[in-house]
Amino acid sequence: MKKLPVTIITAVITAALAAATVILSEKTLSMVQFDTMKILLIICGCSAAYCFTAGEISGNFSQMDKLWSILPPVYVWVVAAKGGFSARLVIYALIVTAWGIRLTVNFARKGAYSLRFWSGKEDYRWSVVRQFPVFRHRIAWSLFDLLFISIYQNALVLAICLPSLAIMGSDVPLGFPDILAAVLSIGFLILETVADEYQWKFHQTKKKLLAGGGSLEDLPDPYDLGFNTTGPWRRMRHPNYLGEQGFWLAMYIFTVGAGVTRCGIFHWSLAGPLLLVLLFMGSSALGEKISSGKYPAYAEYIRQVFKYVPLRRFERGR
């Protein structure tokens, strides 16, 4: 509870920055950008309709989770094609494609995908959220599924890709901001990949040890903790979330290289990456609430290790 004011303040500042970005930037679209935006909105709308329908019928509410890594490459390649496959747009699309492949593979090995696309393993957090008192009535959950899971998250995924639309038609040659955007985004992508690999190996090993009999307390260090403290997780509670947010903020720097920003940094397409930061505030808070309820040592982990800054490392019994 002590951290709640900080979270609220950060959320307010982030939301204010997103609003200021839209207000201070040039919002006019060229005819080609406008036509491209219509295509993207059609894809987004169809995806939202599918997610809601499939989720309600199948009872699996991870439909958008499955599409989260697939839609961005589709969006940015549509933009690249409509933009004549300019060098900047192709580089942008290739990096996003690499991001999409990484996330799809990571989600697939958790059992999320199936030949029947609407089935597969649901993200464990949705079952927790469904237990909240506000969702006790089925209609309340259906409204949440429609408005947040299906519509808002689809809109957000489109929004984080809109810097690609912003750079469409730019005749500014590739320069240092583009190199910086590429290097930073690839760096954050590598961080995500490494963090997910450590997470996967930890939980797979823990699962095998538990399958041999005994309880969590009987496992060897560090598996007896229940949660991962290996690799980057020893110094950051959410290295994968840092990588995800950093990736899309870094991709926005391509708009600076394209010369479409005002005051050096402002363009309306920054609102998407900033809203993603807000989403991860809620997601990280939910994840830590679940982990704190499952693992007694998690509170100590929170006390010792920062969420995103790797300045301290976890030491048992300290």
Structural summary, described in words:
It is a single chain. With 318 residues, this protein is mostly helical. It folds into two domains: 1-28 and 174-318, no CATH class; 31-168, no CATH class. Helix content is 66%, strand content 0%. Helix 2 (31-58) packs antiparallel against helix 4 (71-82), helix 4 (71-82) packs parallel to helix 7 and helix 7 (138-166) packs across helix 10 (271-294). The chain starts with a helix and ends in a 14-residue tail after the last helix. The model has no long low-confidence stretch (mean pLDDT 90).
What are the salient characteristics of this protein?
single chain; 318 residues; mainly alpha; 2 domains; 11 helices; 66% helix
Number of domains: 2
- Number of alpha- plus pi-helical segments: 11
Q: For the terminal residues, how far apart are their CA atoms?
A: 23 Å
The proportion of strand residues reads under 5%
The SS-based structural class is mainly alpha
Specify Rg, calculated over alpha carbons. Answer: 21 Å
Annotate the secondary structure layout:
Blueprint: H1 4-24, H2 31-58, H3 63-67, H4 71-82, H5 87-108, H6 124-129, H7 138-166, H8 176-211, H9 239-257, H10 271-294, H11 298-304
